């Protein structure tokens, strides 16, 4: 198993993240945040701040840095300071730049803001009572969708005709990515334009957003991010510090660094929506699903810029059912923005759906795995396109054997003062690709460079570039230099949507085939060592006539500089032929203390069908992180929003995440079926699926242990009293 290439520099502290960059004359910015949830800024008294020691610039909606709203691949990106409207507590409303961070922060505290405050809607419950929004899907597909059997008039009829029905409402908390590396940027201008050092999920995408915001040519912005300290969707869009640092650096003629504090990350960036989901399942007595209705509501910011697609992300595709009705609605609130957060839609959606399936198993007195396998789908309901490759049943069978599922009793068991239960859940995440371009360069010293702008936000993409590059060029991985995280490299697309390996990997294969073709043409060209011969390539060597040379030897012999070729790939014809998804079976054992109701996860297992696994070590880490995140969603994480819109626990003292003592050994297993119907590499993506279903597996285990069904996340001690 290959090691993560960037592991040593990361664990020894030598990796330089965006904010680790420093330049002569660099100054520091501090972002000022609103202290009301809704209203208009009437005035900002910045007199004291402007004359405070070391202060170079104080920017506000009254003295703004001009920024245009850029169009990104996700729609418009919000830019700060362009108007006086406040729509949430903790919104960036000012930026102070000074010689030191401390001076900037001190000066920021001297700014006096007066607001014309308006009533704020900050709770999802209140919003649900008043909001009357038409359904939205968030991606242009039908927001309210029905698939009905030919003789069925409505989903209600199908439910009414079902011998066994379960119906329940599930809620999930709003969360924040809280990546280890806070959002930050170092911006430097010179005669060529802007260079920005800032963690993101796609250097070329960030460069394009910044160029549009600053009103300069795309070629005038270079975005650099060799290392990203976690992103999870939260760095897909460019955030306030990068826009502000870039614009202030241009205004002041000095390099500017801006780093959000940990507390600021919770509001000045975006997080995950809170959701309410109503599910009704109708089944025959043998467990066959007859009807599935899944109605969802999610919180959004007032600009309605992101929809957490819970029913679309799950019930739309997960089970074979003759009758399906899903609906997605939004509840705009005066709360910090929401955005993609690892498995957006699927993560909270799977808590609801997979809890409901477990409730149905209880009602049917049926084993939860048997129920799931009975309703295994060969294609999403109402779609003609079959899954390209689906081994979910094998995931469950292997998982059940590895986990000792046969020892599970429908009413759990006891071990001294502990109530012990097991739970399981399905995990699915669509297999997608985004456009990506890779350049491969062969050098005379027999090494090769594989380069794409992209980003490795901890997912292992750098290592994947080297492994797929080595395989495609038929040379050792040590001979490959992978390059990533620089917008001046060929456009690599997004490290998001669990797409990077399939997208970049396909492009690598195309680039490698091209550069090998070019090499062979060179080898047999007039005067070259294989002049006029029929040449072939294997093992890093050009062969003909029983002779061979490495590509480096050949380049030296013809006295050629390095040769390069690019390859591009993107979603293609395949999407008209099959449906594509990764699959998994999650297992969890919990121990609930009989008297204190302390909840402990004691065992976890995930078995996944994610196509070909390029590097088992980084793949396992990625899945393990997702599964732990699922436990976190189940038992720890949740932002508490006060009535005035302030986050009561927007810091690491109050926002709970699991520590090592909360997490047992995590068992991860892959069933490996390369899916070459999806892409030539055969990898389907596993960035996000690790977290999907895990919270439901925990809740189902808690129900098995205690007999108490908790339909909200996070599950807290008081829910089990
Ligand atoms: Mo992910 S939520 O696609 O970065």
Automatic annotation (TrEMBL):
The record, for Gene3D superfamilies, names: Aldehyde oxidase/xanthine dehydrogenase, a/b hammerhead, Aldehyde oxidase/xanthine dehydrogenase, molybdopterin binding domain
Keyword Oxidoreductase present in the record's keywords: the answer is: yes
The superkingdom listed in its UniProt entry is Bacteria
Coiled coil located at which positions?
none
What Pfam families is this protein classified in?
A: Ald_Xan_dh_C, MoCoBD_1, MoCoBD_2
Cite the InterPro entries for this sequence: Ald_Oxase/Xan_DH_a/b (IPR000674), Ald_Oxase/Xan_DH_a/b_sf (IPR036856), Ald_Oxase/xanthine_DH-like (IPR016208), AldOxase/xan_DH_MoCoBD1 (IPR008274), AldOxase/xan_DH_MoCoBD2 (IPR046867), AldOxase/xan_DH_Mopterin-bd_sf (IPR037165)
**Domain (Aldehyde oxidase/xanthine dehydrogenase a/b hammerhead) ranges:** 12-119
- Keyword Oxidoreductase on this protein? yes
What does the UniProt keyword field contain?
Molybdenum, Oxidoreductase
Q: Which protein, by its recorded name, is this?
A: Xanthine dehydrogenase family protein molybdopterin-binding subunit
Species source reads Saccharopolyspora thermophila
